[in-house]
């Protein structure tokens, strides 16, 4: 559907649908994401990509490199920026 809308040049509609779907997936899997342990490099990348703040970076590192609820909230907020959302998805796939 998203690809079809893009072909029809309904880019804004396609992007809004895609963002909504990705946000729903993030919310659905948030408990699994918070149980995952990330590498120091991955957590630093979250900051570099603008997905979390310096304060949240310190919090995540102090919690053994797991994403806290505050970190997830920041990531959900960043989900409005499609490029940041793609960065987070790539990071989860690695």
TrEMBL record:
It comes from the Eukaryota. This is CARD domain-containing protein. It comes from Amphimedon queenslandica.
């Amino acid at each position: 559907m998203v690809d079809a809308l893009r072909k029809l040049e309904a880019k804004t509609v396609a992007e809004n649908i895609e963002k909504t779907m990705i946000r729903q997936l993030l919310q659905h899997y948030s408990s699994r994401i918070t149980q995952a342990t990330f590498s120091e490099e991955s957590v630093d990348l979250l900051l570099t990509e603008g997905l979390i703040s310096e304060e949240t970076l310190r919090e995540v590192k102090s919690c053994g490199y797991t994403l806290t609820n505050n970190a997830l909230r920041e990531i959900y907020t960043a989900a409005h920026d499609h490029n940041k959302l793609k960065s987070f998805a790539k990071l989860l796939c690695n």
